[in-house]
Amino acid sequence: VSRMGGDEFMVVIEHPNARQSAQAIANKILVALNQPIPVEGHMITIAASAGIALFPDHGSDANVLLKNADVAMYHAKELGKGRFEFYSDELAREREEQSLLEFALRQAIASDQLALFYQPRVSLRDGTIEGAEALARWFHPDLGEIPPKKFIRVAEETGLIFDLGTWVFRRACTQLKHWESRGLPIRTLSINFSARQLLMRDLADRVSAILSEVGCDPRKIEVEITETSMLFDVQTTKRVITALKRLGLRISIDDFGTGFSSLSHLQQLDIDALKVDQTFVRDLLVDAGDAAITRAVIGLGRGIGLQVIAEGVENARQLAFLKECGCDLYQGYHFSPAISGTSFEELMRLHLQATAKTTPRVGR
Ligand code: C2E
Ligand code: MG
Ligand code: MG
């Protein structure tokens, strides 16, 4: 047994049945470390994570074995503390892909590979386009289009989310300003903030600086925070929401219904809108449970004075259901996927013309 430095320790085991004995010993160590320790009258519990690399499967020399045990340990940490994981080829491939993506993403932020696309948010009351949600897109010259779920995760894990988030916010504000200057009647442009971004010490200052630099109206900007990231650190979330509200921004809770926020907690937060998670909308015609949840979320949101937005609306029957429930706005492929800023402007102009033609003119 030796200490590698900091809070890292190494155990070398020689045994003919390496996999099983390593597993048994890792378990014993984790259980032993998890015993409460009395410190100045308080009981303190700590947890450890362990990674295991086997000779010769996972490396034929000490350096490789150590490196791979380290990779396995980080994987164990990611899966939740207090557990152990074996090294595997799959893990190695994932790591490799992660570090390639990290490198590529750094370049993408600096060069012009990232774009923002805009998905229309449509009123269920009168069918007008109320605004849009900005969604990040990455078109890599060799790898093709990389889905946001994938690169946002890498950005969060590597801290690149701070730069990426700032880029997204500035880009969205600039687009809004551009649309405003061309007379496009956008009421709201919503922008996604990730859980990690909320932990950024100077988030509100940065946001404020970008708002005044670009000169756009903060009341037209809505920050989307996912329900699960809100629950991650309730105090921080509260503080951040208060600071952003003070700047005049709107706040909505994204993917609502997937976390477990308490209703009283919801009422305490100064928020403006709820976005019903698309998994409920997707199955509401086939699953009575999802239909009931959707109806309940809409009722709840409206009951406490929030705007309710349904995501992932793909057909007219879902739309009719949502309308009947009293939902305010919707987004989804049924109306339009996320499109470029230029296409969005064209779509909105066409839509404005079409609705102007069909709306009867009163008083003429
Ligand atoms: P989200 O914010 O919940 O965005 C909705 C996702 O649903 C988008 O996926 C959108 O393209 C997709 N979608 C829209 N309509 C439909 C539909 O009718 N059917 C289906 N099946 N899907 C639909 P996308 O663009 O791949 O983004 C995925 C997630 O990545 C977003 O979920 C958001 O959490 C995150 N994301 C995207 N852009 C950003 C960003 O700029 N910053 C941060 N922090 N996260 C972002
Ligand atoms: Mg969103
Ligand atoms: Mg969502």
Number of helices: 14
- Major β-sheet, in short? 8 strands, mixed, barrel
Q: Beta-strand percentage?
A: 15-25%
User: What's the count of strands?
Assistant: 15
Task: Please identify the structural class as seen in this structure.
Answer: alpha/beta
Mean pLDDT: 92
Weakly predicted, low-confidence segments: none
Rg from C-alpha positions?
25 Å
In N-to-C order, the SSE pattern is EEHEEEHEHEEEHHEHHEHHEHEHHEHEH
CA-CA gap between termini: 90 Å
Question: Could you characterize the architecture of this molecule?
Answer:
Strand 14, helix 13 and strand 15 form a beta-alpha-beta unit. It contains 14 helices and 15 strands. With 364 residues, the chain is an alpha/beta fold. The protein is elongated and about 85 Å long. It is 49% helix and 20% strand. Helix 5 runs parallel beside helix 7. The strands form 4 sheets. The chain has an 8-stranded mixed barrel, surrounded by 5 helices. Strands 1-2 form a two-stranded antiparallel sheet. It has a two-stranded antiparallel ribbon with strand order 3-4. One magnesium ion binds next to strand 12.
